[in-house]
Write a structure and sequence with these properties.
about 140 residues, alpha+beta, about 30% strand, binds nickel (II) ion
Length: about 140
Amino acid sequence: MIYLTRRERFSAAHRLFQPGLSDIENLEFYGSCANPNWHGHNYVLWVTVKGEINRENGYLVDLKKVSKILKDRVVDKLDHKNINLEVDFMKDMIVSTENLAVGIWNQIEPGLRKLGIELHSVKLQETENNIVEYFGK
Ligand code: NI
């Protein structure tokens, strides 16, 4: 079994808030990420896949195909977007790093499986100090 990680980056805006709370209550709970006028992050995403090395070509998988799935299903949908308002797979979700990592997993897992590899983890950095990692359950 070999593991391969692809890094992607995107910049996006969001706001953390619970609709049932007032602006002040949301700011108390979420801090500056609850700013009603939005704010942005430079996200870094690491997607790790795993499987067996192909004996003929020496690869786990053609990385161009992995990259295309990440681009089409994740980066193009998120980069320079307002995640709360514009990203279909995050509709009606609280745009936390946790929920975004799970959303990204769900976006890419079926396509990666079709390539004959298994998704191992989705690691998402919102800031240098805040990183979430999801393993599918
Ligand atoms: Ni934030």
